[in-house]
């Protein structure tokens, strides 16, 4: 479920795969054919991103509306990139429901209802946790997607939630929070902190796993030092509960770190869901009026994040319309286009580069790893699958 999410979340524990919201059979029935051609997949991805972008207007969408929308391909891309609920909400927001085929409308309505009900469960879980933390004298700082659930209408806003991320500044508060979680019946594998958070806490009666953070963007502390994040925390009254969130700049830096990092593998960055890039673009739209804040640019330049941020901003400009104040670097756009259009070629190239890089060195050091690496490569060729978390 999304713990450490992003284009390439460095050092994060792997998360459970996201649910496949639309069965392949249902997708094929929409067109009566097999999966679409590769160029149709890319065209559909761009149309999807335009629909869900906070920068799009109804007039713009209607001006570019295709005469025969490839709904099968568009729904497949939305499912792949965890954007099906967002697509349903976007069509309603722009008053475009009448442009949707009846079969597609039925699928989207079912997904929207399922996601809203699921998010309402997450929201109730957040309130129970917040009350328990408050009773122990703690004020939880909710992070990332959890913030979308704070308003009463939040569960219906189209965000596909996978888990709940929370942070307390200081190890003593973190240990106290662990005690609260265990008192509520949550369990984790250990209490040893990872680069960003402790092992996830699970409860047999709850949907969401809880990721208790020890840092915000670890192991890249320079981007958002813990003391800086703590100094900017904003306390909130959530219908009688004491909670908190990061300040706007810290929130967008946290979102940036979910999408990229200075040491991310270039080929890997195109393999994770665009939901996180949309979160980043939406954060700038909502908190900074759609303009990338100069303070973010200054921070990434100071801390060695400029190149990776250039690539991300080039992608969010190309797909979501977020104006990019940095020089264009289309490397990430090209990779995303390649994995969308020719996923098997993408994985072949990745395997080739791995063989003559870190992967080859691992095989030389431990030949017994070779069969597993070959098996993984063959599996990706047979079924390239959805973008994955790193």
UniProtKB/TrEMBL annotation:
Specify the domain of life of the species encoding this protein. Answer: Bacteria
Which keywords accompany this UniProt record? Transferase
Q: Which Pfam families match?
A: NTP_transf_5 (PF14907)
- The reply on keyword Transferase is yes
**One Gene Ontology molecular-function label:** transferase activity
- What this protein is called in its record is Uncharacterized nucleotidyltransferase
Organism of origin: Ancylobacter rudongensis
């Amino acid at each position: 479920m999304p713990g450490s999410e992003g284009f390439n979340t460095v050092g994060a524990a792997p998360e459970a795969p996201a649910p496949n919201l639309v069965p392949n059979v249902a997708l094929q029935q929409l067109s009566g054919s097999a999966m679409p051609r590769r160029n149709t997949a890319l065209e559909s991805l761009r149309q999807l991103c335009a629909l869900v972008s906070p920068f799009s207007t109804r007039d713009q969408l209607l001006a570019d509306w295709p005469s025969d929308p490839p709904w099968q391909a568009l729904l497949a891309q939305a499912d792949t990139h965890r954007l099906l609920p967002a697509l349903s909400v976007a069509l309603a927001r722009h008053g475009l429901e009448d442009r949707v085929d009846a079969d597609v409308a039925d699928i989207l309505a079912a997904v929207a209802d399922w996601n809203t009900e699921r998010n309402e469960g997450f929201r109730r879980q957040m309130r129970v946790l917040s009350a328990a933390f408050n009773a122990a004298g703690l004020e939880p700082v909710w992070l990332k997607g959890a913030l979308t659930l704070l308003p009463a209408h939040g569960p219906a806003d189209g965000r596909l939630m996978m888990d709940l991320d929370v942070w307390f500044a200081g190890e003593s508060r973190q240990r106290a929070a662990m005690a609260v979680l265990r008192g509520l019946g949550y369990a984790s594998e250990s209490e040893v902190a990872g680069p960003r958070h402790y092992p996830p806490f699970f409860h047999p009666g709850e949907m969401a796993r809880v990721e208790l953070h020890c840092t915000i963007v670890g192991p890249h502390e320079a981007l958002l030092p813990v003391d800086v994040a703590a100094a900017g925390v904003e306390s909130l009254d959530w219908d009688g509960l004491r909670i908190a969130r990061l300040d706007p700049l810290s929130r967008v830096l946290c979102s940036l770190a979910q999408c990229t990092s200075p040491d991310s593998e270039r080929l890997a960055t195109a393999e994770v869901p665009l939901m996180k890039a949309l979160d980043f673009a939406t954060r700038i739209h909502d908190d900074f009026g759609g303009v990338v804040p100069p303070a973010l640019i200054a921070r990434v330049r100071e801390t060695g994040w400029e190149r990776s941020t250039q690539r991300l901003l080039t992608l969010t400009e190309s797909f979501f319309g977020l104006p990019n104040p940095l020089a264009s670097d289309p490397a990430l756009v090209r990779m995303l286009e390649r994995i969308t259009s020719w996923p098997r070629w993408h994985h072949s190239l990745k395997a080739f580069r791995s063989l003559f890089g870190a992967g080859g060195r691992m095989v030389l050091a431990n030949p017994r790893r070779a069969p597993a690496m070959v098996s993984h490569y063959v599996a990706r060729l047979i079924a390239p699958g959805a973008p994955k978390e790193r």
